Amino acid sequence: MVRLGEVGSTNDVARALADAGVPEGAVVVADVQTQGRGRLGRVWLSPQGGLWCSMLLRPPARSAWGRLSLAVGVAASEAIEATVPLRTGIRWPNDVVLGERKACGILIEGAGGAVVVGIGINVNVPVEKMPQEVAARATSLHLAAGHPVDRETVLRALLDRFARWHGLWTAGDDAVLEAWRRRDVTRRTRVVVDGPGPRVEGIAEGVDDDGALRVRLDSGVIQRVVAGDLTRLSVPGDC
Ligand code: BT5
Hints:
By secondary structure, the protein is of the alpha+beta class. It has 6 helices and 12 strands. Strands 1-2-3-7-6-5-4 form a 7-stranded mixed beta sheet, sandwiched between helices. Strands 11-10-9-8-12 form a 5-stranded antiparallel beta sheet, with no helix packed on it. Helix 2 runs antiparallel to helix 5 (151-170) and helix 2 crosses helix 6. The radius of gyration is 17 Å and the shape is globular. The N and C termini lie far apart (46 Å). The protein binds biotinyl-5-AMP.
């Protein structure tokens, strides 16, 4: 495991390890990221107190990336629940949420033939000090549990849960889909998804086998969405 104080992005460090030929399983953890990033080049705020880590994988060619993303979401969810007595949910594609608020973000990037899985968990991050637009939608384990949480305990739980779900993903086990579906907080809610294509609005109907979101449009047609940002327009039970 590579442990760093301040770093640009742990994903970049893991990519450099991939380029250097380091084998699968390397883990990079940092205290602070100055250039933490989310999907589509967005900023991921990564001050002291959070768990910012990246794992290097070398999966076989033509692996099911969509399902890997689901497996990582489930692993992060379980790691949080193993550490604090709170119930997590997953908001497609793989934000781990406590209530409506995001506690963990996941960024999976290709790195040549390798894959870097970046996971950011707001363990003791003072989210209230973040810019209002982020603070209003984010939470930390500390905030949600009402007490500081040991970052090492979360890390150990994450590595443990990740090993299990990565193994199941590698084996093509449907348990990954089933576990993700049990945590899906968007199913049967009205959603709008902004992605690379035109905006899609309708009722979320869960994920397909490959991780694509199924949205039932008002016309009744089911549209598959493979990438994008989802906003819930209703709460479960409304639809
Ligand atoms: C993500 O992107 O949620 C992926 C975040 C991945 C972070 C990890 S940390 C270790 C590794 N190294 C990296 O550089 N990245 C990975 P996305 O779904 O695009 O969400 C980004 C959005 O979340 C931003 O535009 C903000 O609105 C919000 N945000 C930023 N920082 C946050 C934080 N710490 N907690 C909650 N929300 C945040």
